């Protein structure tokens, strides 16, 4: 067994049709439960810290690359939720993503696995990367059978929503308080709107 397999097994759960699998895992991926964050910290926190230091070295093939991206882009947000460290892996994740994309590693993964590559782009405070995220999720959506389209439509819709925020502000205003950044008047008005935070 590859060292990263327990992480992928936990993250994706048992194999199933993509729509069914996404519905089952959605609470882990996008919900917040303290016990999930605690489990991520207990089981995988050491790997996350290694990844943040550039010491994990799993990106030698597609699934190791994916697992390292999940450590840098997803588990940081769980383990360090509500602190600046939640975003500490973003730059390294973007650089690592480029390594794999140049080798077409994303195209050797399942469509659901590819979602967690392209979320690295969606998390970037950079409009060009946001445009790439929207295009990537549009491509995934176009590939889906009818039974799986709802999940991938949701992924695409969230990518569009993230892009709109970056196009408007150049950054995610909901990160400002965590990162100690002052918010503009326009950002404060935006943050008062429902659904303004991701």
UniProtKB/TrEMBL annotation:
Transmembrane segment boundaries: none
Cross-referenced Gene3D superfamilies: Tetratricopeptide repeat domain, TPR-like
SUPFAM superfamilies named among the record's database cross-references: TPR-like
Pfam families attached to this UniProt entry: DUF924
InterPro entries attached to this UniProt entry: DUF924, TPR-like_helical_dom_sf
Keywords attached to this entry: Membrane, Transmembrane
Alphabetized PANTHER family for the sequence: DOUBLECORTIN DOMAIN CONTAINING 2, DUF924-DOMAIN-CONTAINING PROTEIN
Official protein name in the record: Transmembrane protein
Species this chain originates from: Pseudomonas flexibilis
């Amino acid at each position: 067994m590859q060292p990263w397999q327990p992480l992928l097994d936990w993250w994706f759960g048992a194999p199933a049709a993509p729509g069914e699998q996404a519905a089952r895992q959605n609470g882990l991926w996008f919900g917040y439960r303290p016990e999930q964050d605690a489990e991520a910290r207990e089981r995988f926190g050491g790997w996350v810290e290694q990844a943040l230091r550039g010491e994990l070295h799993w990106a030698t093939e597609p699934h190791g690359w994916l697992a390292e991206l999940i450590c840098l882009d997803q588990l940081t947000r769980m383990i360090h939720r509500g602190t600046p460290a939640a975003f500490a892996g973003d730059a390294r994740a973007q650089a690592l993503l480029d390594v794999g994309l140049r080798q077409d590693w994303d195209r050797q993964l399942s469509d659901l696995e590819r979602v967690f590559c392209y979320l690295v782009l969606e998390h970037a405070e950079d409009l060009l990367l946001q445009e790439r995220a929207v295009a990537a999720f549009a491509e995934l959506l176009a590939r889906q059978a009818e039974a799986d389209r709802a999940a991938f439509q949701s992924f695409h819709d969230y990518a569009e929503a993230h892009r709109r925020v970056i196009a408007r502000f150049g950054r995610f205003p909901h990160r400002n308080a965590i990162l100690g950044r002052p918010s503009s008047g326009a950002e404060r008005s935006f943050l008062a709107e429902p659904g303004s935070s991701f």
